[in-house]
Amino acid sequence: MRYNILIGGEAGQGPNILTQIIGEALTNNGNYAFYSRDYQSLIRGGHNFNILTFSEEPVWSNDSKIDILVCLDNKTEEIHKKDLKPEGIVLKNSDENMYYAGRIFKLLCLDFKLLEESLKKLEKNFNENLKNAKKGYDEETKNLCKLTERTNNNLFLNGNQGISNGAIQSSIDIYYAYPMTPATPILNELASKENLKVIELENEIAVINAAIGSSIVGANVMVGTSGGGFDLMTEALSMTGIAEIPIAVYLAQRPGPGTGVATYTSQGDLNLAVNFGHGEFSRIVVAPGDPKEAQELTNQAFYLSQKFKIPSIILGDKHLAESFYTINEKPLIMKIKNETSLARYNSYEKDAYGSATENAKIINSNIEKRLKKIEEIKKETEKFSRFSVYERKNSENIVISWGSTKGAIVDAIKDMDVEFIHLKYIEPFPEEIKEKIIAKNIILVENSSTGQLAKIIAGKTGILIHEKNKILRYDGRPFFADELKGEIKRRLR
């Protein structure tokens, strides 16, 4: 049984900390929780809300219908009461968020000591928070469900934390960034670590050029940004392609073009990640679907960038970056060897001495060397899991997707005659999936308006996905598992 709690209020009223405390308690209790954030680009006011979904079985997404509605303001009930289940519960009439923490712990039969421990970790206003929480706990008279308490080694992480952990385990030396949602939290995550430089510069052009300078003198470097910032980096990234400079880039997507909708989610930058820059050169594009994959693929991106001296793009989005997942498996991590040596670097075609050249024979040789590298990279990536397959293998119905849509799809297709292929490597593309999808009913799920992955699949395999089989969402919101289930069923008919 899945349960959904929606916690809403104005910016500044604390829905995030309330959701985090409940999610961590459920995870520490041996259950599974997932929550996503919906917030406006405001410091105060407006309407923000989080949806927390939990179960005794793994959960990777939210549903559209609500079991418990927590109203930190009147607007929350007005907006979301339509989504409340007939037997749903509304908690309201208090502006103290820890009061609601107490009530929810009672509703879920969670030990109050877990809440007290969480409040101690907050440090600030402990006595006041504990008083409000105890009041809520004592006043609540209902029980929604009885959860089984189990021992576990579960972690409660979001995608940005997965990216940060992967970078740290890849021996990153310097992280450069200019703040841009949803990549900004990486600055704080990495700045809290010892023996690691985190440098915020005045703009993305400064960021990428400083990173290149650090890389060529031997530092293991990553930069982070969103689509608009990545646009500004692409000229310098072209230089890394010709000069053979290793660099890892975290591209955290949000809706565009332009500023778009700055605090919401999208998968509209896939083409940008695969085709950035001018000229022809190799790049890696990996797309994690949860924090564990974020950790592993970041590590692999560093490895491949260093081995082949190319840019590696870790392609995420706001939904992955800021949503919290219960993770119960350890990531597979490899040690990264930095082999960068001092040399003459520039953006020209160059001879054996690093000097710029216009010699036709040398130009041809350099280009052929870069083409050969493409094949070497393809062969090297075969040692990794470039895609995953879920549910009924060898079904005639294939759902295919990439990135953060993974969670909603995995939850939606349970007990359905569907095979789900989740792509983790976009470039180089795992062309062997052609044998898996040929002559099948293929359904694409993507947070974009044009279905960019379908065009890549067509170009790499020659297989077309019918327009009627493209399930696309492009309003800045992620997919709900229950709604997606209905959409997939319609395509199966």
Q: Let me know the number of strands.
A: 19
Report low-confidence residues grouped into runs of 5 or more: none
CATH superfamily of the largest domain: Thiamin diphosphate (ThDP)-binding fold, Pyr/PP domains
- Overall structural class, as computed from helix and strand content, comes to alpha/beta
CATH architecture of the largest domain: 3-Layer(aba) Sandwich
Please count the helical segments. Answer: 17
Spatial separation of the terminal alpha carbons: 27 Å
* Beta-strand content estimate: 15-25%
Radius of gyration based on Cα positions: 24 Å
For the biggest sheet, the summary is: 7 strands, mixed
Oligomer: single chain
Description:
- This protein has 493 residues and is of the alpha/beta class.
- It folds into three domains: 3-152, Pyruvate-ferredoxin oxidoreductase, PFOR, domain III (Pyruvate-ferredoxin Oxidoreductase, domain 3, 3-Layer(aba) Sandwich), CATH 3.40.920.10; 157-381, Thiamin diphosphate (ThDP)-binding fold, Pyr/PP domains (Rossmann fold, 3-Layer(aba) Sandwich); 387-492, Rossmann fold.
- It is 38% helix and 22% strand.
- It contains 17 helices and 19 strands.
- It has a seven-stranded mixed sheet with strand order 5-4-1-3-2-13-6, sandwiched between helices. A seven-stranded mixed sheet has the order 8-7-9-10-12-11-17, with helices on both faces. A five-stranded mixed sheet has the order 14-16-15-18-19, with helices on both faces.
- It is globular, with a radius of gyration of 24 Å.
- The two termini are 27 Å apart.
- The mean pLDDT is 95.
